[in-house]
Amino acid sequence: MKAPTGETVEPRFATDVVTFYHPAFWGLQSAQDVRKLALNDAGGFWSRTLDALAEAGVIGVELTFAPGDIESALRAFGSAPAFRRALEARGVSVVSAFVAGSDAPDWRQGDNLPAIVADAERRAAFLADVGADLLVTGLPMRTTYGTRPPFFVDAAYMSRMADIAHAVGDAVARLGVRLALHTESNSTLWYERDIDLFMALTDPRYVWLCPDSCHIALGGGDPVAVARRHAQRIALAHWKDAVGPIDVELTIDDTVFAQQQPYMTELGTGIVDWRGWADAMSRTPGAGTVLIELDEAPDPVAALRAGVAVARRARA
């Protein structure tokens, strides 16, 4: 992004709260221990997380599934305005909130639309109160290849998803919030073809895109090509690196995210073309934010600093 003088403007560097979920960061043994700690001491969880953000020089945060979710923030601070004040005291702001599929009404269930919209409105109201304007979600997961009967991601399926996205996008827009769809591995918005089809079926006034460079690469796609094709609709992007495409058919169940983990890596150590990605991102509506995603980093401060350095070099 360029200033009127032609100089490059520093973006807001951000990360997802999941960056801080590694047990080692907390001196604990398991993810379950981290969740228990946050449940018993939500204030302590957020205080250390926000301090680490400030130490890393990262000033934006995306809320996600528990323990770094909206409910946890409300337990810790009592209200959205109080949470906002705590962040502002550290120079931090909320960028967005991510809706995990397991944490919200299922888009595949045809009679769930009222519940889906109500859930999105609740999250959007919180975002508006904390000064953020972006709700990020994904489409449902695929089924394991070979499952009978087979589940096809076809035009009929995508049309149903587009209808739901339109309803949600319209509902949250009334609260000043935009809806953006995330390109999650092994979901029905993973392959380049999935993304192109869904974007073609949705109204750009109501439905935005949040591409994830790692997940697109894990599906054998070209993140830079996707970003260039859909640049006008990218409200936010997740900057994340991949070791290489997933070369096996994973079992899609509760363990699929753990199965994907070995294919992910820190920025600058994988296959993503960061110069190409940075160039494509500079041409998007979301150019002002660089969200570095590092799933469960043992030393999140060091990892974020390294990621910011990679992003800065790519944008130079």
Describe this structure in words.
This protein is of the alpha/beta class. The strands form 2 sheets. It has an 8-stranded parallel β-sheet with strand order 6-5-4-3-2-1-10-7. The chain has a two-stranded antiparallel sheet with strand order 8-9. It is built from 13 helices and 10 strands. Helix 5 packs across helix 6, helix 6 packs across helix 7 and helix 12 packs across helix 13.
Brief digest:
This protein has helices spanning 23-26, 31-40, 42-56, 70-77, 80-89, 113-130, 155-173, 192-201, 213-218, 223-229, 256-260, 274-281, 300-315; strands spanning 12-16, 60-63, 93-99, 134-138, 178-182, 207-210, 238-239, 241-242, 264-265, 289-292.
Distance between the termini: 10 Å
Low-confidence stretches: none
* Strand proportion: 5-15%
Q: Taking all residues together, what is the mean pLDDT? A: 95
Largest sheet: 8 strands, parallel
Helix-strand topology string = EHHHEHHEHEHEHEHHEEHEHEH
The strands making up the biggest β-sheet line up spatially as 6-5-4-3-2-1-10-7
The counted number of beta strands is 10
Radius of gyration: 19 Å
Q: What is the 3D shape?
A: globular
- Class derived from helix and strand content: alpha/beta
Helix content bin: 40-55%
State the helix count: 13
List keywords for this structure.
single chain, 316 residues, alpha/beta, two-stranded antiparallel ribbon, globular
Topology (SSEs and partners):
Elements: E1 12-16, H1 23-26, H2 31-40, H3 42-56, E2 60-63, H4 70-77, H5 80-89, E3 93-99, H6 113-130, E4 134-138, H7 155-173, E5 178-182, H8 192-201, E6 207-210, H9 213-218, H10 223-229, E7 238-239, E8 241-242, H11 256-260, E9 264-265, H12 274-281, E10 289-292, H13 300-315
Parallel strand pairs: 1-2, 1-10, 2-3, 3-4, 4-5, 5-6, 7-10
Antiparallel strand pairs: 8-9
Helix pairs in contact: 2-3, 3-4, 3-13, 4-5, 5-6, 6-7, 10-12, 12-13
